[in-house]
Design brief:
With 284 residues, the protein is mainly α. The chain contains 13 helices and no strands. The radius of gyration is 24 Å and the shape is globular.
Length: 284
C-alpha cells in the first residue's frame, strides 16, 4: 500500500511538471509556428499551430534584409555575440582569479570586503543606472559596445560564486606547488583554474545569458543604431504603423535570437550541471 502511494505521488509530480512545462512552452511554440507563416495567417483566430502554407523565406529575409537604416538583424546579432562572449570571457578569468584570492588567502578586512561586495547584489539595477551612466560617461564609453562589457565583467555575485568553487580545491596542491618554487600566478593558472571547470561553465552561462538579454542598459547608453544589440534591434521591428508590423519576420528574428544562447548552454551543460551539484551538495 505504501509503495503504491509512493508511485501515485511520483506520477502526480510528473504530471504537474509536464503541465507546467507545456504552459511555459506555449508562447515559444507559437513564436516558432508564426515564424513560418505568411503575414495574413499569423493573427488568425483560433490559432493555427501548423502553418497552412509554410513560408521558409521568412528566415533569410529577417536575418539579412537591411531594414533599419542599412542594418539587418544579423548585424545586431553580431554586436550581441561580441558583447556576450567578451563579457563572459572577462568574467570567467577575473571572477575566478579574485574568488581564488578570497578563498585561499587571509588578509585584513577580507570578510568585510566580501560581504560588502555581496550587498551590492541586493540593489535593483534601476537604482544604479544613473551612477553607472556617469562613470561610463567619464570614461568616454557612451555609445560604445565596451560600455556594455566593462561594467559587468566583474560583479559581487560572480566573485562569490567563484569563491565557493575555489574553496573546494585542496590546499595541499597549492602548498606542494609552492614547495617546488611555483609563483602564485602560476599556481592559479596551471593548478587551480583547470580544476574550476564547473565554476567556469556556470559563470560563462550566467554571464552570457545576462549580456545577451540586456535591454535597459543598452537602451540608456547606446544611441547609434549601428551599435544596437539584438534586443534593441528586435524592438525596432515593432515601430511604425500598428497595421503594418511584419509579425512573421518579427517572430523569425526572435526565433533566431534564441539559438545562440541555446547552443551555448548545450555546449556547457555537463560542467554546468556538475557545478550545480557542487553548490547544492546533491548528486544524481
Amino acid at each position: 500500500m505504501e509503495l503504491r502511494s509512493k508511485h501515485v505521488r511520483k506520477g502526480l509530480k510528473y504530471v504537474l511538471l509536464a503541465i507546467y512545462c507545456a504552459f511555459c512552452l506555449i508562447p515559444f511554440l507559437w513564436m516558432v509556428s508564426a515564424s513560418f507563416k505568411k503575414p495574413e495567417d499569423v493573427l488568425t483566430v483560433p490559432i493555427q499551430w501548423i502553418p497552412p502554407e509554410w513560408q521558409l523565406s521568412n528566415y533569410p529575409t529577417a536575418f539579412l534584409a537591411p531594414r533599419f537604416v542599412g542594418h539587418s538583424i544579423s548585424h545586431f546579432m553580431l554586436n550581441s555575440l561580441f558583447v556576450a562572449l567578451i563579457t563572459s570571457g572577462l568574467a570567467i578569468v577575473l571572477s575566478t582569479f579574485v574568488g581564488y584570492g578570497f578563498a585561499k588567502f587571509k588578509f585584513p578586512g577580507r570578510d568585510a570586503l566580501l560581504w560588502g561586495m555581496l550587498s551590492t547584489t541586493l540593489l535593483p539595477f534601476s537604482a544604479v543606472v544613473i551612477p553607472l551612466y556617469l562613470i561610463v560617461q567619464a570614461l568616454g564609453l557612451i555609445d560604445s559596445l565596451w560600455s556594455l562589457i566593462l561594467p559587468f565583467a566583474l560583479t559581487g555575485q560572480s566573485i562569490f560564486l567563484a569563491r565557493q568553487f575555489a574553496i573546494t580545491v585542496p590546499s595541499e596542491l597549492m602548498d606542494a606547488a609552492r614547495v617546488d618554487g611555483a609563483s602564485e600566478f602560476r599556481i592559479f593558472w596551471q593548478i587551480v583554474f583547470p580544476l574550476l571547470g564547473p565554476a567556469i561553465a556556470t559563470l560563462g552561462i550566467m554571464t552570457f545569458l545576462f549580456s545577451w538579454n540586456q535591454f535597459l542598459w543598452p537602451m540608456v547608453v547606446l544611441s547609434s543604431q549601428g551599435q544596437f544589440t539584438l534586443p534593441l534591434g528586435l524592438s525596432l521591428m515593432g515601430l511604425g504603423s500598428t497595421f503594418l508590423v511584419d509579425y512573421h519576420l518579427w517572430m523569425a528574428s526572435a526565433t533566431l535570437a534564441v539559438l545562440p544562447p541555446l547552443l551555448f548552454f548545450l555546449l556547457l551543460q555537463r560542467p554546468y550541471l556538475r557545478g550545480l551539484e557542487t553548490l547544492s551538495g546533491f548528486k544524481g
